Amino acid sequence: MANSTYSSTTYLHAAGSATYNFVQDHPYAVGGGAALILGAGALAYKYLRPTPTNPESEAERAMIERQNRTKEVMDKLLITEYHLPINKNEKNQWATDPTKPQPIFDKATTKEIEIVAKMIEKAIQHQSPLPNIILKGPAGVGKTMLGEALCYKTGIGFIRIPSGAMEKHIKTGNHITAFRDVVKVAESYPEPTIIIMDDGEELVAQRPEAQKAEAKNGAAQAHWLVEQERLSQTIAQRRTALVNAILEESGKAYRKIGFCITTNRDEVIDSAFKTRSKIIAVKSPDFEERKQIIITHLPTAFKFDKDMLGFFHKGRLEEMAAKTEGFTGRNIVKSLEDMYACVQLEKGNITQDSVDASILAMKASVERSGPKKGPSVAHSMVQLGQSVFNSLATMVSA
Question: Best exposed site among 48, 88, 198, 386 by fewest CB in 10 Å?
Answer without folding.
Answer: 48
